[in-house]
Amino acid sequence: MSKKLVEAMAELNEDLVIAEVKNLISRNIPVLKIIGYLQEGIGIVGKRFEEKKYFMSELIISGEIFKEASKILGETIPSGTSKYGIFVIGTIYGDIHDVGKNIVNTFMSSNDFEVVDLGVDVPPERFIEAIKQYKAKVVGISCLLTNCFDNVKECIQAIEDAGLRKEVKILIGGGPVDEGTCKYVGADAVCKTAQQTVEYCKECAYLSISFI
Ligand code: B12
After folding, report:
1. 28 and 114 housed in the same domain
2. 111, 144, 150, 181: which to mutate for ligand 1, most atoms within 8 A of CB?
3. For the B12-binding N-terminal domain, which residue ranges apply (predicted)?
4. How far apart are CA 99 and CA 91, in angstroms?
């Protein structure tokens, strides 16, 4: 376990985070493990924010450091083909967190999915348009704010009202979401990591829920 990386992230020491990420890569530590350390560190940032030891500026900095580290990690991951077809993803409206969503994108791309990223603060209409435009079979909705769970629910209801619900699997993810959230919002599955997302989507492909 790289206590050094967890602590450097929690302390917002960008130079040390970057140096340690490079060090772990050079020691062939798996990328997912490194992301796990970064996530543990940023989790501490979140806790300190809750405890009012950190403020908004620290949250912003932590997101930037994570993005810089992700860039370096992303360069080590070979890009794949798009043989499994299109995966549409976006962060639900009201929410602008995108660090985790972007990690999912990198892993999905490198595992042979073509990713259509709708960005952050995405309203239901954009998801619906994208499902129609790309004939998507799996849609991912990212949500890190508990007060946006209702927006996710509304979005899934809107997809249903548009007559598209039976055509797509809807996956949700983001720090606070769990099985209970999944049930509440009416999604098909929740994935806690990028790797789980890849596995779930590949399983859909193997079960011949063709993505193409
Ligand atoms: C960085 C950060 C920010 C940055 C975001 C920068 C960015 N570009 O994303 C900024 C400064 C903008 C921010 C703002 C706010 N934040 Co903020 N933020 C965080 C923090 C510290 C880290 C989030 C993060 O990047 N995690 C790392 C990534 C890698 O993890 P992840 O997103 O969970 O992703 C993984 C999985 O969940 C999954 N996944 C993610 N998305 C998806 C999608 C799909 C489809 C799937 C399948 C999987 C999947 O895969 C990823 C890789 O494993 C968290 C604390 C925490 N513990 O998460 C608070 C936190 C989420 N924020 C919080 C709050 C309150 C806010 C603000 C409301 C603060 C304010 N007063 O304004 C605003 C809201 C702004 C808005 N409207 O969205 C709270 C939310 C509390 C709650 N109960 O809802 C948290 C939990 C902090 C806390 N403990 O209080 N924040």
Report:
1. no
2. 144
3. 1-85
4. 10
Q: Is the CB of 138 under 6 A from ligand 1?
A: no
Q: How would you write the pLDDT of the chain (212 residues) with one tens digit per residue?
A: 689 999 999 999 999 999 999 999 999 999 999 999 999 999 999 999 999 999 999 999 999 999 999 999 999 988 777 788 899 999 999 999 999 999 999 999 999 999 999 999 999 999 999 999 998 889 999 999 999 999 999 999 999 999 999 989 999 999 999 999 999 999 999 999 999 999 999 988 766 555 54
For residue 44, give its domain range: 3-75
Q: How far is the CA of 52 from the centre of ligand 1 (A)?
A: 16
On whether both 165 and 195 belong to a single domain, the answer is yes
Q: For residue 17, what is the domain's CATH number?
A: 1.10.1240.10
Gap between the Cα atoms of 1 and 6, Å rounded: 9
Answer yes or no: is the C-beta of 190 below 6 A from any ligand 1 atom.
Answer: no
